[in-house]
Design goal:
heterodimer; A: Peroxisomal Thiolase, Chain A, domain 1; OB fold (Dihydrolipoamide Acetyltransferase, E2P); 2 domains; 9-stranded mixed beta sheet; 5-stranded antiparallel beta sheet; 12 helices; about 25% helix; globular; B: alpha/beta; Peroxisomal Thiolase, Chain A, domain 1; two-stranded antiparallel ribbon; 13 helices
């Protein structure tokens, strides 16, 4: 057997009011809001955050494999799972990216289950994250959202996976060619019919595999292109009570949708319940899960519900356009960078390793051979810094790379809990929110693309109450 | 160790106007400043035996050729000095020590920067070829703004306290023919200006300017036979202290001043025999790259007690007519900061003050003058004491 032993979600703090998008383009408004990743987020950083939420307070040392599922990987060549591993300080692991399909999350989950069942991995971490590009003014722009979820698979996970099935169907829609800016779609019935057909076949087969009837299923966590298709398909399978709470709050979150919904279901499930997870894309995957004793003990403080409630409305569409880099900017003046330095500093930059002086005890970052306080040489112990602290001092910087910005970048010197001082940008808030003494937590973000590659590092954001 | 006290003399000084010299390049500026200094000293270019030239940006010039090519002085030692924004005064320090060592009779310390050639707002973003991933690319104002934030939080200072520095220095600079900005400003102008890096606004920040400055250095014995035989100025001391370029990563650093200034000042005061700087120093040119820097520097230099910096300006003590005039030239606030040039310009200002021929505001009968050049995020500091012969 193998099952889910832990889960976590990451939802960007920013929401776009769909009414605002409708007003911007004089188009009909879909109900509710959508999640919009900040300009310093991508599928990888969303995924890293979900992985950290999933593993909060858990032992990660048993993880032998990391799967990263997305349709929007940061790179065409260079996978993201190894970056997740670097942040988690895991090195002797298999890292796999599953991309190119909306069912990447469920496919990764099935693959991880196989790895654990076969003994190839003691534990496997599945991270699904997506940030799909939607053409401005289209319904997709209103519908799509950005989010991530992570699921930890172990042999003894209290949520056993008792049935699985997949079907493949060659079908074009929705799609995005290499080089396309946006997702394309027929926007027609043939797509929703293809969806329903594939999901029904896969779910029915998985239920048969598990020996569970549809009316014994308490929760249906599934990707669907839109809320109506979700409802009609669920009804067609026989899940009369199925509900999706993502479309109206954060949107269609693509390859992450099924796992985000699963995390929400597991937050609320009780022992004895059955949960079905499904996603579609050129076919479909379905898994049947049985919540066992102890499932409630695995719930994290940061539930999907809290992630949905933790939101700030973007004050205008312009901010979203800047986040997505949808406005052309001439002469990008990216900061200088170096792939070699980033590699050399990887333990510091990704896993947040500093050092503690064995003589004077001062925790310091970045690491140096000589202590910044007592200058003793080579008498340090490596320590991982904590990701919480408070603002010691800050500024709101308008001058970036020789350009004067209307919106300043908050920069803060943060004293970390447990020692160490770090200099970071502050994100996920308005600049005027930043104050001396403000409690913050570190969040992994895309800094810039100097030297032509993605430079990731940590930023601070207002600390959540966990 | 004999040190350099009274063993080195300033024989002549020169400087271009500091402004946006779009029509001139760094060589034009260097020639102008050096020719003025040579004329002031009563020597010719060919009398120079060695050169130290402060240059920060590589687009201004690399190596000793920056000065050698400009002056067509080939075949003698010429060194480019880079030590952040203190590059100019470190060039001066090297030149002084060479004369004190008895290796040369007459040397040139100079500095130049041609920042506007880079065409950016604020300082050009070419500080390093690559930055480590854990160093977000912050602007220079941002690094000093964090000191102001801390002072506001700890000391209760306000943006009004900062604005007083801008008003004072622009009032002084308005009278100086070589200043970039020669206009007085009001408190309202300073406070209403756009933000650069909160809490520092446009008038809390020095400008990006071009310029060059030069100092001819010799021994007191030789100086007695030169132009200023009766009023040459003696070098009483120079201190240079270097701390970390990453104060933002230094646990426990309080941001309420800059240790490099305190350490450089201690070196200089010890050598010059100064025990009570507030009484013994007649005037100072300090590195007001940002208004907060000047206020914190009052404390770091011992002009007042820690925490009393804002009161020092509020009470008018650093005003031109105060008991310890600071930046009577108008400072970086009025001149801007062509990085490599600033340190040598300060030496020139103090020299002319001590000789009673200041270009702008003349302080009455000064005996000892102090010049303070601060670099990086408060990481490098050079303090020079000059005295009447």
């Amino acid at each position: 057997m193998a099952g889910v032993a832990g889960w976590g979600v990451s939802v960007p703090v920013w929401r776009l009011d769909r009414g605002m998008l409708a007003r911007a383009w004089d188009t009909p408004a879909l109900p509710g809001e959508r999640a919009a990743a900040s300009g310093d987020q991508d599928a990888l950083t969303l995924g890293v955050e979900a992985a950290l939420e999933c593993l909060r307070g858990r032992d990660a040392s048993q993880i032998d494999a990391i799967y990263f599922a997305t349709t929007t990987p940061p790179y065409a060549e260079k996978h993201a799972a190894a970056t997740v591993a670097a942040v988690l300080d895991l090195h002797d692991v298999m890292t796999v990216d599953v991309t190119g399909t909306l069912r990447a999350g469920t496919t990764a989950m099935r693959t991880a289950l196989d790895a654990v069942r076969s003994g190839g991995a003691r534990a496997a971490l599945v991270v699904a994250a997506d940030m799909r590009p939607a053409e401005p003014s289209t319904a997709m722009e209103q519908l799509f959202g950005d989010a991530a979820a992570a699921v930890l698979i172990t042999a003894e996970g209290p949520v056993a996976v008792i049935g699985e099935a997949s079907v493949a169907e060659e079908f074009t829609g929705p799609w995005r060619r290499t080089g396309d800016h946006y997702v394309h779609s027929f926007d027609g019935k043939i797509e929703t019919e293809s969806y329903a057909r594939a999901v029904e076949r896969a779910v029915t087969a998985a239920l048969a595999d598990a020996g569970v009837s549809p009316d014994a299923v308490a929760r249906f966590a599934a990707y669907a292109p839109d809320p109506r298709t979700f409802a009609t398909t669920a009804k067609r399978i026989g899940f009369a009570q199925a509900k999706d709470r993502l479309f109206s709050t954060i949107g269609n979150v693509g390859a992450a949708h099924a796992l985000v919904a699963l995390a929400g279901a597991l937050d609320e499930t009780v022992p004895g319940e059955h949960v079905v997870v499904a996603a579609q894309g050129e076919g479909a995957d379905a898994l049947v899960l049985a919540a066992g004793a102890g499932v409630q003990d695995e719930r994290q403080a940061w539930t999907l519900q809290r992630a949905l409630e933790n939101k700030r409305l973007l004050p205008g569409y312009e901010r979203y356009l800047r986040f997505r880099r949808l406005l052309p900017v001439d002469e990008e003046n990216e900061p200088p960078s170096s792939t070699i330095r980033t590699w050399r500093d990887r333990a510091q930059a990704f896993a947040l390793y500093g050092v503690r002086c064995n003589v004077c005890g001062m925790v310091q970052f970045p690491a140096n051979r000589a202590c910044i306080n007592c200058s003793v040489l080579d008498d340090m112990t490596r320590v991982r810094l904590q990701r919480t602290g408070s603002v010691f001092t800050f500024t709101l910087d308008h001058l970036i790379a020789g350009e004067y910005l209307e919106t300043p970048v908050p920069r803060a010197v943060v004293d970390l809990d447990g020692g160490g001082r770090i200099f970071v940008e502050v994100t996920d808030c308005e600049p005027s929110d930043v104050k001396v003494g403000m409690p913050v937590e570190l969040t992994f973000r895309l800094m810039h693309e100097g030297a032509g590659f993605k430079n990731y590092y940590w930023k601070a954001r207002p600390r959540r109450d966990l | 160790m004999p040190g350099i006290k009274d063993r080195v003399a300033v024989a002549g000084v020169g400087a271009t106007r500091f402004t946006e010299h779009y029509e001139k390049d760094q060589e034009d500026l260097l020639v102008e400043a050096v020719e003025e200094a040579c004329t002031d000293a009563g020597i010719e270019r060919k009398d120079i035996q060695a050169i130290w030239c402060g240059v920060y940006y590589r687009f201004t010039g690399l190596s000793g050729t920056t000065a050698a090519d400009a002056l067509r002085l080939y075949g003698i030692p010429s060194t480019r000095v880079e030590n952040y924004c203190a590059s100019g005064m470190d060039a001066f320090r090297n030149a002084c020590f060479a004369v004190a060592a008895g290796v040369y009779d007459i040397v040139l310390a100079c500095g130049v920067e041609k920042i506007t050639d880079q065409g950016s707002r604020g300082l050009p973003n070419v500080l390093r070829d690559s930055i480590p991933p854990f160093m977000p690319p912050a602007s220079a104002p941002a690094l000093f703004a964090m000191a102001a934030t801390r002072a506001f939080s700890e000391r209760g200072w306000t943006r009004e306290d900062l604005a007083r520095v801008a008003v004072k220095n622009h009032a002084n600079g308005a009278k100086h023919p070589k200043a970039h900005f020669r206009r007085e400003i009001t408190m309202e102008t300073a406070l209403d200006a756009p933000m650069i890096a909160w809490p520092l606004g446009r008038f809390d920040s020095c400008a990006v300017s071009d310029g060059a400055a030069a100092v001819i250095i010799t021994t007191p014995e030789i100086a007695k036979k030169m132009n200023h035989k009766d009023d040459f100025v003696n070098v009483k001391a120079n201190g240079l202290a270097v701390t970390t370029s990453s104060p933002m990563h230094n646990p426990g650093f309080d941001y309420l001043g800059f240790p490099a200034t305190r350490m450089a000042a201690k070196q200089a005061y010890d050598e010059a025999g100064i025990t009570d700087p507030a009484r013994q120093i007649s005037l100072a040119e300090v590195h007001d790259c940002f208004t907060i820097t000047e206020i914190l520097t009052y404390e770091d230099l011992g002009f007042c007690e820690p925490g009393e910096g804002a009161a020092f300006i509020r009470d008018g003590r650093s005003a031109a007519e105060g008991d310890l005039p600071v930046n009577p030239s108008g400072g970086l606030k009025s001149f801007g900061h062509p990085i490599g040039a600033t340190g040598c310009r300060m030496i020139g200002e103090i020299t002319r003050q001590l000789q009673g021929r200041a270009d702008g505001v003349q302080v009455k009968d000064p005996e000892l003058g102090l010049a303070h050049n601060l670099g990086g995020p408060g990481a490098v500091c050079s303090v020079t004491i000059l005295g009447r012969n």
